[in-house]
Amino acid sequence: MRALGRRGAALGSMLWLANCGGGRLGQGAGVGTGPGGLSCVPYARARSGIALRGDAWTWWDAAAGLYRRGAVPATGAVLVLDRTARLRDGHVSVVSRVLGPREIRVDHANWDSGAGKGREALDQPVLDVSPGNDWTLVRVWYPPAGALGVTSYPARGFVSPAAA
Fold first, then answer.
1. Which secondary structure element, helix H or strand E, spans residue 98, and what is its range?
2. Which CATH architecture has domain 5-163?
3. What residues does 120 pair with on adjacent strands?
């Protein structure tokens, strides 16, 4: 993890106090916080400036009429993964780089498992594996394996910090 200076320390302190999944405060175990205390929703909100709340999977619909939404990745946009049996709250991550039509890098929190759960992960690969090359199905880097995970996750799309 790279040093983020004073701004990063403030962000880290703020995120440490937030609960995971939906960014709901004070909601007992199982909400998704880990040993590092970071979670995807408040992390993505702080990094992107997108002022949405609620479980990660709700961001797509919540953004309607407020922020631009689309199927094309852009640096600074938030990738919204739908909820599944494995992702009961969904997941959001911030696009850090676009490498090509089917490959991006993201910064996100609380993607890892075990001792890495609840930690920030920077510049992690995400591949579009959807049959129509429309970013509706993705594979995400899984740090414990040091490779892309084997699971493909349904994605809703990208929410831009720009107003709708």
1. strand 91-100
2. Alpha-Beta Complex (3.90)
3. 109
CA distances from 3 to 6, 9, 62, 104, 121 (A): 9, 9, 32, 22, 12
pLDDT band at residue 36 under the 50/70/90 scheme: low
Nearest to 117 by CA among 5, 7, 53, 21: 21
Q: Where are the domains of the chain?
A: 5-163
Residue for token pair 């910090």: 161
Tokens 């739908």, located at residue: 82
The answer to whether 126 touches 104, Cβ cutoff 8 Å, is yes
**Furthest C-alpha separation in the chain:** 43
Q: What was the pLDDT predicted at 13?
A: 38
Q: Is the pLDDT of residue 31 over 60?
A: no
Cα–Cα distance for residue pair 94/56, rounded to 1 Å: 12
37: confidence class by pLDDT, cuts 50, 70, 90: confident
